[in-house]
Amino acid sequence: MTLADREREWADKARRYLKAELKRADVTYAELARRLRDHGFTDETEGSVTAKLARGTFAVSFFLAVLTVLEIEGLQLTDL
C-alpha cells in the first residue's frame, strides 16, 4: 500500500468518525457550522462543512474543533 493510499484510508476513517458522531449527537451540518462559528471558525458554513466531510480532507484543527463543539472529551484511535 502506498503512502497516498494510507493517507486516503486515514482520511476516510476520520470522515466516517465525525459523521457518526454528528449523527449520534443529532447535529446537522448547519448546526455544526453555527457551533464552529461560535468557537471562532468564522468562515464555516453548511456548504463548507458538507464539502469537507464529503471529500474527507480537512485540517486537524477542524477535526479537533468538531470534537470540541460536540463535547467529545476523549478519543481512542481504535474508535476510528
Plain-language structure description:
The protein has 80 residues and is mainly alpha-helical. 66% of the residues lie in helices and 0% in strands. It has one domain (3-79). The protein has helices at 3-25, 29-38, 46-55, 60-69. It is globular, with a radius of gyration of 13 Å.
Short description:
With 80 residues, the chain is an all-alpha fold. It has helices at residues 3-25, 29-38, 46-55, 60-69.
How do the strands and helices of this protein lay out in sequence?
Elements: H1 3-25, H2 29-38, H3 46-55, H4 60-69
Question: What is the averaged pLDDT score?
Answer: 92
Radius of gyration: 13 Å
Q: Please identify the structural class as seen in this structure.
A: mainly alpha
What share of the residues lie within helices? 55-70%
Number of strands: 0
Distance between the termini: 19 Å
| Overall 3D shape | globular
- The number of helical elements comes to 4
Descriptive terms for the model:
80 residues, 0% strand, mainly alpha, single chain
